[in-house]
Specification:
The chain is mainly beta. It is 6% helix and 34% strand. The strands form 7 sheets. Strands 2-4-7-10-12-15-18-21-24-27-30-32 form a 12-stranded parallel β-sheet, with no helix packed on it. The chain has an 11-stranded parallel β-sheet with strand order 5-8-11-13-16-19-22-25-28-31-33, with no helix packed on it. A hairpin with a 5-residue loop joins strand 34 and strand 35. The longest helix has 11 residues. The termini are far apart. The mean pLDDT is 90.
C-alpha cells in the first residue's frame, strides 16, 4: 500500500496531476490534497480521501474527486472513502444525460458537521454499488447526499449504527426532487431513540424513492419522508421505539408491494400528519400484500389506505386473546371444491362459494348402493321392467313402434295364400 496524492487540479488520467508523475495503482490510497481531480476514465485504487496526512508526505485536507461523463471509479478497500473536509470527497456535478459509476463501500464517517462522502449535485445519473453505513456521532453528516434533481442508483444495503440523539446522521439524505432507486435492505439503528433526524434514509423534498428490499425499523427510522413518493417492493417491520417508515409534515404517496408488520410497540408505516380536515387529501398508503398487526397495534396508520387484489388477508388481534385473520372473498382456506359440494349450498369465509354437485335421491338409487350419506332404496322387480316396456314400448320411433308393422310368419303366409296363381 502506498500513499498517492494530487499535486495539481486536473484529470485523473494526466500523469502531471500526481506526485511522482505516474498514475495511482490498485494498491494505493489516493488523496486529493486540496485539489480537484476529475475522474475521466475507469480507474481502480484502494481508497480515496480528502483528509490530512501530517507525517511525510505532508498532505493537506480538502479538495475532492469529481466525475467527467462516463467516469468509473472502483475502491477495493473495506472502507472506500475517508472524509476530512466539508467538501464532499466524491461528487457528481454533471447535467443529464451524463452518467458516472462508483464501486465501493463506506462504513464509517468522521464525526464532523456537514461532512459527506458522496454527493449528487447535478441532474445526471450516478450509480453506486456497495454497502453504506452511517456510524456513531452527534454531527449532521451523510454518507450519500442528494441536492439536485438527478438520478441516484444505489445497489447495496443501507444501515445505521448511530447512538446519539443529537444531530442528523443519515446514510442517504435527499434534499431535492430527485429520483433515487435503492436495491438492497434498509436497516435502522438500535443505539438511540431518534424519531426523525437520524433515519437511515431521509427524504426532505418531493422526491421519488424506489426501494427493492426490506425495511427494518429499530430505535431510529428506516425511512423518514416529507411529501415524497415512496415505492417499496419488499417488507416493512416496525421498530422498538419508532416505526419502520414515518411520514410527517407534508402528504406523501407510499406504495408497498409486500408485507407490513407492526412490532409489539410500533407500526410498520406511520403517517403522523393531520387526520381531521386534511384527511381527504392526506397521505395515501397503497398496499399490495398482507398486513400483520401485532399486540393490537395496526401495521399501517394513515388517513387513507387502499388495497389491491394481491391483498388477500389482514391479521388482527381478538379482544379476548388470540389472533383472527380477515380474508378476502375467494381465498383458498382449505375449502372443498365447488364440484364436491351439494348443488345450491353456499359456503366459504364470506359465503361466496356455491356447490355444483348434483346428488340423486336415495329413491332413485338401487337398494344398498351408497349415495350421499345413506344408501339407495330402489327395488326393481320383473314386473317393473315389463311395465316399463309396456308404458314406453310404443312411443314414437321406439323399437315397439318400429316392430309393430314388421312382417311375421303368420302375416307373410297369409299374404302368399291370398295370391291366385
Amino acid at each position: 500500500m502506498a500513499l498517492r496524492y494530487a499535486v495539481a487540479t486536473g484529470n485523473w488520467s494526466n500523469t502531471a496531476t500526481w506526485d511522482g508523475g505516474t498514475l495511482p495503482t490498485t494498491s494505493d490510497d489516493v488523496f486529493s490534497n486540496g485539489f480537484t481531480v476529475t475522474i475521466d476514465g475507469t480507474f481502480t485504487v484502494l481508497s480515496i480521501r480528502n483528509t490530512l496526512n501530517a507525517a511525510a508526505p505532508i498532505i493537506v485536507a480538502g479538495g475532492q474527486f469529481r466525475y467527467a461523463n462516463g467516469g468509473n471509479l472502483t475502491c477495493t478497500a473495506a472502507q472506500a472513502i475517508f472524509a476530512g473536509s466539508t467538501t464532499p470527497v466524491l461528487e457528481m456535478t454533471l447535467a443529464s444525460p451524463n452518467t458516472a459509476i462508483f464501486n465501493g463501500s463506506v462504513l464509517t464517517l468522521t464525526n464532523t458537521n456537514n461532512f459527506n462522502a458522496i454527493k449528487l449535485s447535478g441532474t445526471g445519473t450516478l450509480t453506486c454499488t456497495g454497502n453504506y453505513t452511517v456510524d456513531n456521532g452527534s454531527a449532521t453528516k451523510q454518507i450519500i447526499y442528494v441536492t439536485s434533481t438527478g438520478t441516484l442508483n444505489v445497489i447495496g444495503n443501507l444501515s445505521s449504527t448511530v447512538s446519539s440523539a443529537a444531530g442528523s446522521a443519515n446514510t442517504l439524505r435527499i434534499d431535492a426532487n430527485a429520483t433515487v432507486n435503492v436495491t438492497g435492505d434498509i436497516t435502522a439503528s438500535s443505539g438511540v431513540i431518534n424519531a426523525g433526524g437520524s433515519a437511515t434514509i431521509i427524504c426532505n423534498s418531493n422526491s421519488t424513492l424506489n426501494v427493492t428490499g426490506n425495511i427494518t425499523g429499530s430505535a431510529t427510522l428506516g425511512i423518514y419522508t416529507i411529501g415524497s413518493t415512496v415505492n417499496i417492493i419488499g417488507s416493512i417491520t416496525g421498530g422498538t421505539s419508532v416505526s419502520g417508515l414515518l411520514n410527517n409534515t407534508s402528504a406523501a404517496t407510499i406504495s408497498l408491494t409486500g408485507v407490513a408488520t407492526s412490532s409489539a410497540t410500533q407500526p410498520a408505516i406511520n403517517v403522523s400528519i393531520a387526520y381531521t380536515t386534511a384527511a381527504a387529501s392526506g397521505t395515501l398508503v397503497k398496499i399490495s400484500g398482507n398486513p400483520v398487526n401485532a399486540n393490537g397495534l395496526m401495521a399501517i396508520i394513515a388517513p387513507r389506505i387502499t388495497i389491491d387484489t394481491a391483498t388477500s388477508s389482514w391479521l388482527f388481534q381478538i379482544s379476548t386473546g388470540g389472533n383472527r385473520t380477515l380474508y378476502a372473498a375467494g381465498v383458498a382456506l382449505g375449502n372443498p371444491a365447488t364440484s364436491n359440494v351439494r348443488f345450491g349450498t353456499t359456503y366459504g369465509a364470506s359465503s361466496e362459494l356455491t356447490g355444483t354437485l348434483r346428488v340423486p335421491s336415495p329413491s332413485n338409487v338401487l337398494s344398498g348402493v351408497l349415495t350421499d350419506n345413506t344408501t339407495g332404496t330402489l327395488l326393481m322387480t320383473p314386473a317393473d321392467f315389463w311395465n316399463y316396456l309396456i308404458s314406453s314400448g310404443f312411443t314414437a320411433n321406439s323399437i315397439g313402434d318400429r316392430l309393430q308393422n314388421a312382417s311375421t310368419v303368420a302375416t307373410t303366409g297369409g299374404q302368399i295364400a291370398s295370391y291366385n296363381i
